[in-house]
Specification:
Radius of gyration: 30 Å
Number of helices: 19
Helix content: 25-40%
Distance between the termini: 54 Å
Strand content: 15-25%
Oligomer: single chain
Shape: elongated
Strand order of the largest sheet: 10-15-14-13-11-12
Length: 528
């Protein structure tokens, strides 16, 4: 028989949302409740009959609650195979009663991580008894139902109502799968945190875990299934942002919005307003400005064609002036730390436009993990937390850059960090004027970026492209002088690049011949 009657339930939860209504419904169906600590107290104070787990085990909770459910009368009740003669005999011999339903949500370790609790507090938020019970009940799902999510209370009650007070095997299988995944994600967060605390950069085992934030209609393409999961990391961005309006975010929206906001985080809002426009995970326009409106218009001018249907990320609170400009063309998403009421009202006129507020900006210097799946495994590396403001720039040409050129060089290299390799970025006056991304040849990226600038000039009715007198950034060294030749032809006057090529001397000589200033950063920003 696949249905299993629920006669006894053990409830031990840190999140007491919906607990009393659920417990009351179980009692009404004749279920005996067993509970622990604060959960038992809450149930008893609601006037419901409940047996404390210490009365079940014959041992009091001890060691500040660290030891309370780690007992054969608990685990035997969860793991016993009903109908098995040997198991039944052991239960009878040791007075072990079966537990048919386990309701547990774990100590809030992820919440402690998010609030950056101190070491001792983190350790105390590592649950031991909870995961042990969950794993035992989940293993024995042929007989026991296990609930780790308050969202499943209703499903359990509905299933019991449909089966005369019993749970179905189909429900128990689903709940067991969810329970094992929950403990896996929980342990992944703990393992990652402890590895970081121990200074382990390449731990022998690396676990990844997340909580479903949103089921998506499809992935990059309509034939691919997809979902968005949140990890225990609390980095500001799409995972922490509140969506104020607009359609549901798609897979590509989420990916592009993340890319845009990460780049926006490179610009200190106390220093300048900044706007980033992203299309297909690459910035097609980035600019600083005296206001968000000025920054947006300068970013838009870089590539108005690609900006259509793009993502706009801002480093300051979205105001009415900027909002009024942004809504003039089709935009998929706007993300900013916040938005004024006036700006919200303007954006509301475009009902499908998604508006997200993230509260604050991501710290470009903060440590973190970047993960990419490959066949049979995944690659894990530190997030690229190098910031151009922290780098010592080495002048390698006869001519040093002017102060204006130096400011634009830093700006361009800041942007190049977030452009797919091979990356070439032309900048002038605190704004991109040409971006070349993702080409197999660096010279092709330089030529494409220059061509983009020509197109933008024609669209604006300008007499010449803004690459004339601009600076250029390369995310990696120029392996040959031909890439530099393309930049010279476009009209660049100064160059920033990592250096380190076998042909650096050749490239420097070509820059000197053309009268360019060139600085080396010593740091590469590949982004594949």
């Amino acid at each position: 028989m696949s249905e299993r009657p629920v006669a006894r339930a053990l409830l031990s939860v840190s999140d007491k949302t919906g607990l009393l209504d659920f417990a009351r419904a179980l009692v009404q169906q004749g279920v005996t409740l067993v509970s622990t600590g604060g959960t038992a107290k809450a149930i008893a104070e609601a006037g419901l009959p409940v047996q404390d787990v210490s009365d079940l085990t014959g041992f009091p909770e001890m060691m500040d609650g660290r030891v309370k459910t780690l007992h054969p009368k608990v685990h035997g009740g969860l793991l016993a195979i009903r109908g098995d003669a040997g198991h039944e005999a052991s239960m009878a011999e040791h007075a072990i009663l079966p537990i048919d339903l386990l309701v547990v949500n774990l100590y809030p370790f992820e919440a402690a991580l998010a609030r950056q609790a101190d070491y001792d507090d983190m350790v105390e938020n590592i649950d031991v008894g909870g995961p042990a019970m969950i794993r035992g009940a989940s293993k024995n799902h042929a007989h026991v139902a296990v609930v780790v999510d308050v969202a499943d209370y209703g499903a359990v009650l509905d299933d019991m109502a449909a089966n005369g007070g019993a749970t179905s095997l189909a429900l128990r299988k689903r709940l067991a799968a969810k329970a094992f995944s929950r403990t896996a994600a929980y342990d992944a967060a703990i393992g990652t945190w402890l590895s970081d605390q121990a200074g382990e950069t390449t731990p022998a085992f690396r676990a990844l875990g997340g909580t479903l934030a949103q089921g998506l209609r499809y992935g990059e393409n309509p034939h691919q299934q997809a979902a968005f999961y949140r990890t225990a990391e609390s980095r500001p961005g799409v995972a922490t942002a509140v969506q104020l309006q607009g359609k549901e975010l798609s897979y590509n929206n989420l990916n592009d919005t993340d890319a845009a906001y990460e780049l926006a985080g490179e610009f200190d809002p106390a220093r300048t307003a900044a706007c980033v426009i992203v299309k297909h995970a690459n910035p097609c326009g980035v600019a600083e400005g005296a206001s968000l409106k000025d920054a947006y218009l300068a970013a838009l001018a870089c590539d108005p064609v690609s900006a259509f249907g793009g993502i706009v990320a801002l480093n300051r609170t979205l105001d009415a002036e900027a909002a009024a400009e942004i809504v003039k063309i089709f935009t998929e998403v706007i993300i900013a730390p916040d938005a004024t009421d006036e700006a919200k009202a303007i954006v509301a006129g475009k009902k499908n436009l998604r508006l997200l507020v993230a509260g604050t900006l991501p710290d470009p210097r903060a440590k973190g993990l970047s993960v990419k799946t490959i066949a049979g495994g995944f690659l894990a590396q530190d997030r690229d937390s190098a910031v151009v403001d922290d780098l010592e720039l080495k002048v390698v040409t006869k001519r040093a850059p002017t102060e204006a050129e130096l400011a634009d060089l830093r700006f361009a290299f800041r942007v190049a960090k977030h452009v797919k390799s091979n990356a070439i970025v032309y900048a002038r006056g605190g704004a991109t004027v040409g971006v070349g991304a993702g080409q197999m040849s660096r010279v092709d990226s330089a030529r494409i970026a220059a061509r983009k600038a020509v197109d933008a000039a024609e669209a604006a009715g300008a007499s010449e492209p803004l690459t004339r007198g601009a600076v250029v950034a390369s995310d990696a060294f120029f392996p040959f002088a031909d890439g530099l030749d393309a930049a010279i032809e476009a009209g660049a006057t100064a160059v920033i690049q990592p250096g380190g090529s076998m042909r650096d001397a050749e490239v420097i000589a070509r820059a000197d011949e053309a009268g360019l200033a060139m600085v080396f950063t010593g740091v590469r920003h590949f982004r594949h």
